[in-house]
Amino acid sequence: MAKREDADADRKLRGRAGRMRNGRGSGRAGQGAVRLWGRHAVQAALMNPERRHRKLWATREGVDSLDGELPADFPVEWAQAADLARLVARDAPHQGLVLECEPLPDLFLSDVLEGDAARPLVVLDQVTDPHNVGAIMRSAAAFGACAIVTQDRHAPPESGTLAKSASGALEILPWIRVVNLARALDEVAEAGYWRIGLDGEAESTLADALPAGPVALVLGAEGEGLRHNITQHCDALARLPIDEAMESLNVSNAAAIALYAVATR
User: Strand, helix or coil at 39?
Assistant: First the structure.
């Protein structure tokens, strides 16, 4: 009997280790779930009433770093830092916290277009790097944008990497995914927004192109920039006045500067 119990315990241990190895490198979890890590991303997700949480893997130090206490019945599995490293992308700074949760509920463009028109809208045309999208979310939340709009395709999924780069902004900034970006820009125009596409070759600077009313900033993919069809659905194209010694800026940096310009016009 003792040998059978030892064998059962060994199988359980191997199974647990295998499940943890399967999480490495993606930030994705089980069917239909998202895995988040890092104090800011996890803290924001725990505070978001729209999130449905499945489980938290954590070190004691990680839980102590959170603002406020977890509910008494919250599902926590205590672990060592090395165990958590197997649940996240390679070399990801998990800070002793890994949260598995449901994806955020879908939102519709009309939901945000009916809000405060003084807040800018950020539209991304096939920006695929999750680090860039997360950084843009962080800047958009910091400068009071009403939402970020991307396509369903050619955009990164909700993930731990994106959430870590967003530093909590994923939980507070509405993220609208649309099938057809050009059609979405038509809807944005009908709502009264002036659509400004950022283009390094444009004649006008952003300061000259900014209107007094509602603004939608449209930014293109890393390297390729805006697609021709998307520029045709912008009211104006504008550039940031950077030194000609530099060809361009990273899209997340460009977004931050453009959002600052809108906030201080």
Answer: helix
